[in-house]
């Protein structure tokens, strides 16, 4: 019988889905939408404080596993824990990321540059590496990363973030080519500003109606993971909204 919250667009009832960063603002919406589509969802989290909300919203349908995705040992442990329990990962949605902006290249500190490269790019490399190995041997897999509109074109005072998200697009293209004969799809989305609590706090005078709603991005992610999108791989989807 279908889940009572069933999403009538997609049915992922036989799919094992790992969402890294699934407790964040966008990640929790993607997690919820996959659950409504009857998927088995495992979400990684990083900070204990962030898990409370998602546990209340989605309990008991999501399994939460703590992992620092910029540490290869922790990534390996996360992936093997899931494989031991479920046997495979069909879909990986990597939502891990962070933004540091407001400084020129001349003002930016080395450690701020490193944080952006690690949390936005190294994380994507490590989780892709360990999940794709299993997907290649299963001859099935969907991988979605979250880049940014700034990965296409910097607006200034965002060099480290824009460079990391641009690098992510190249990583996606490379992995898509490497897995082209393995029945896999590897893509990313490039959102503009998302309507999150953090953004509302940072930009209180903005028109929030012009911002992307997390659920609209979640629907794009689910489409990319569906069989309807099986011909799309290596793409960076411009999810800039219509406003
Ligand atoms: N918000 C926007 O306007 C916007 C626009 C374009 C693109 N994006 C991208 O969209 C994605 C989600 O953004 P968001 O606004 O939802 O951000 P968010 O709420 O801060 O979520 C980011 C997620 O990444 C996790 N994370 C950070 N560092 C980690 C690490 N070392 N190991 C494991 N997990 C880690 C966080 O976990 P903890 O909270 O537990 O640390 C959190 O779940 C990011 O990749 C972001 O760059 C956002």
Structure, explained:
- The protein has about 240 residues and is an alpha/beta fold.
- It has a single domain (about 15-235), classed as NAD(P)-binding Rossmann-like Domain (Rossmann fold), CATH 3.40.50.720.
- The chain is built from seven helices and seven strands; from the N terminus they run E-H-E-H-E-H-E-H-E-H-E-H-H-E.
- It has helices at about 25-35, 50-60, 70-85, 110-140, 160-180, 195-200, 215-225; strands at about 15-20, 40-45, 60-65, 90-95, 140-145, 185-190, 235.
- The protein has a seven-stranded parallel beta sheet with strand order 3-2-1-4-5-6-7, sandwiched between helices.
- Strand 5, helix 5 and strand 6 (about 185-190) form a beta-alpha-beta unit.
- Residues about 1-5 have low confidence and may be disordered.
- The site of NADP nicotinamide-adenine-dinucleotide phosphate has 26 residues, from helix 1.
Brief summary of the model shown:
The protein has helices spanning 25-36, 51-58, 72-86, 110-138, 159-178, 197-202, 214-225, and strands at 16-20, 40-45, 62-66, 91-94, 141-146, 184-189, 236-237.
Write the layout of secondary structure elements.
Blueprint: E1 16-20, H1 25-36, E2 40-45, H2 51-58, E3 62-66, H3 72-86, E4 91-94, H4 110-138, E5 141-146, H5 159-178, E6 184-189, H6 197-202, H7 214-225, E7 236-237
Parallel strand pairs: 1-2, 1-4, 2-3, 4-5, 5-6, 6-7
Bound molecules: NADP nicotinamide-adenine-dinucleotide phosphate.
């Amino acid at each position: 019988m279908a889940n009572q919250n069933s999403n009538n667009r997609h049915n992922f009832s036989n799919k094992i889905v790992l969402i890294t960063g699934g407790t964040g603002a966008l990640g929790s919406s993607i997690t919820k939408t996959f659950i409504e589509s009857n998927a088995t969802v495992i979400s990684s989290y990083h900070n204990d404080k962030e898990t409370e909300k998602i546990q209340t919203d989605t309990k008991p349908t999501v399994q939460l596993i703590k992992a620092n995705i910029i540490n290869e040992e922790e990534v390996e442990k996360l992936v093997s824990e899931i494989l031991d329990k479920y046997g495979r990962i069909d879909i990986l949605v990597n939502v891990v990321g962070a933004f540091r902006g407001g400084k020129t290249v001349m003002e930016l500190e080395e450690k701020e540059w490193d944080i952006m490269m690690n949390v936005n790019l190294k994380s994507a490399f490590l989780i892709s590496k360990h999940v794709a190995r299993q997907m290649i041997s299963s001859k099935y897999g969907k991988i979605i990363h979250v880049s940014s509109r700034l990965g296409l074109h910097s607006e200034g005072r965002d060099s480290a973030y824009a460079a990391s998200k641009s690098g992510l697009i190249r990583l996606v293209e490379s992995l898509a080519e490497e897995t082209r004969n393995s029945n896999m799809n590897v893509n990313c989305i490039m959102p503009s500003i998302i309507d999150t609590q953090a953004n509302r706090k940072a930009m209180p005078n903005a028109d929030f109606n012009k911002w992307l709603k997390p659920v609209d991005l979640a629907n794009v992610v689910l489409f990319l993971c569906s069989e309807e999108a099986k011909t799309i791989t290596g793409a960076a989807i411009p999810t800039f909204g219509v406003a």
